[in-house]
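Field log, afternoon session.

UNIT: design team B
ACTIVITY: writing a sequence onto a fixed backbone
BACKBONE:
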């Protein structure tokens, strides 16, 4: 038992940059991003996957990085709030809309909110229904995002400051 291997070499892209790291099997993605790669946008809120402050995209899908073991990401593409804008020359449209709408107060949850919104837009465009999607909507076709859809789809991201109306407005600005 004392000879067990607890680390594995893992290769994945973070914001377009390839990383090969020897990762402890118990290390979660959030800690790796913040402590090893100095990408501090994703925040540790509840550390139980309930608040969404740690939301990032893995292969374009929203994940709570506090719950995802980094070793499971071999071959994956991770996008954090720092990498959403691509080249970094211009902010991502969601980042710009959040600024213009003042869709944050303390800002702690904002990176997770923005990553979640980006993932949500892709999910809706791909035709993934939510709990409030009209059951009569054609299956597999893009889902129209009204205020109810936006609120439902972002409900996993909490904001202690209560900036929800502005967050929804910022998302609406991007989809218009």
């Amino acid at each position: 038992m004392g000879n067990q291997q607890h680390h594995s070499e893992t290769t994945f892209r973070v914001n377009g940059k390839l990383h090969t790291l020897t990762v402890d099997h118990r290390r979660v993605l959030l800690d790796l991003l913040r402590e090893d790669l100095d990408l501090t946008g994703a925040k540790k809120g509840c550390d139980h996957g309930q608040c969404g402050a740690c939301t990032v995209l893995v292969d374009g899908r929203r994940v709570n990085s506090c719950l995802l073991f980094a070793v499971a990401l071999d071959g994956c593409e991770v996008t954090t709030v720092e990498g959403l804008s691509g080249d970094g020359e211009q902010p991502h449209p969601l980042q710009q809309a959040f600024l213009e709408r003042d869709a944050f107060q303390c800002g702690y949850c904002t990176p997770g909110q923005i990553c979640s919104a980006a993932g949500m837009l892709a999910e809706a465009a791909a035709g993934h229904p939510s709990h409030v999607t009209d059951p009569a909507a054609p299956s597999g076709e893009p889902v129209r995002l009204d205020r109810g859809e936006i609120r439902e789809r972002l409900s996993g991201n909490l904001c202690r400051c209560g900036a929800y109306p502005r967050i929804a407005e910022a998302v609406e600005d991007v989809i218009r």
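LOG NOTE: Residues 110-125 form the longest helix (16 residues).
NEXT ACTIVITY: expression trials, pending approval
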